[in-house]
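Deliverable D5.2: sample structural annotation.
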Amino acid sequence: MNEKGSVFSGVNNRRSFLKNGMVAAGATTMGGALMPGTAAAFGKEEEDHDHAPITKDDIAILTFLSALEQVEADLWIQYAELGGATRQGLSPIDLELNGQKITTGLAPAYITGLLVLDGDMPQYIADNTDDEISHHRFLNNYLASKGAKTIDLSQFAILPPSQVTGVPQKGRLTNLKQLTVDTTWWTRYRSATANPDLGGHFENAVPDLAKGQHPAIPLNDGDLDLDSKGNISNHLQAIANTAGFHFAFIEQGGSSLYPALAQKVTSLEVLRILLSIGGSEIMHFQTWHDKAGNATNITDGNLTFPNLNSGVDPNNGATGNNVADMFQTNLIMPEPTVFLNPSLGPVSIVRPTSIQQGGAVASVVSFADDGLFLDPATNKNTGIVDVLMRLAEEADEARRRF
């Protein structure tokens, strides 16, 4: 995910991260072990299928991915509640979680801001939400089918949601009100000379989003007030713009995570799962990458969304052809860049795909740095980070067996 993830790739570094007060103490690991007596049972069906029985390391990878998909489902549900489609065209919106219908589109003024990014934003939000719910559900069902423990992080659903009228006032896993959004994914995918897996460094497309804390959802009904002409405020448009860049930030992480972990699995069926779900994450990212480029050039307090088509680097004011290449909004196809060895020449790829930059621990660190798990009551992360870190270490330490 983001470049800071690599410094947490070792156990000692994770302990240092926890020791510095970022994580609530006392959290326990959940769902990482196999069901007693079932390890030997893994195999016959798989062995007949691909000559490689499912392993404990495969289970560790699937368990972590299921946990992270539950986190993603939680944040996307919040976006859908406020900004998702209620009905678009003839297709009904049938979002549900555990058999309970999810009410969508509760903040029409917020939707107005999202529509500036694209006219289909509410539909895409609802669809992305449905996809993430299905990923978590499928991975848990698959784990159970193999006799392994499923994962459920709901005990950490303690964070308060938006106070907008109609939003269910139940605890959530994620906080979308205090985000620090890394937007280096924007320039990373435009660089023809740098790859994060080979030590490349990248500038933010929206430098202000990477500083401070910014809401990506309206906090309450007051954020939805209209002026005398029925227009939304710059503040609400900034919230919608923040959401647009956050959508892409979240999904570019999955685009890298699945291929990074796929290199470690043994079972061909598990490999098929990772490649198939990972492919849908890439489709999500490409969609949101395109829509983020339509964010309007506005300022709200200390947050400015720059005109990325001005030919001016928003970080340092530089100009020139190279600047245009790095920021122009319609350059969303992955620019060919160096991969494995620069002597092989440039190639268009998902980036990063190494464990150090795009693996499980790097993903958890990226989400924590984003502010997703901050408890506003303590300004510290909830205990979910400790659990995710433990699961992430097990996934990153997995080894393919032949």
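Annotation notes: The beta strands are 87-88, 91-92, 96-97, 100-101, 299-300, 303-304, 374-375, 380-381. The first strand starts at residue 87 and ends at 88.
The annotation will be released with the project's public dataset once the embargo ends.
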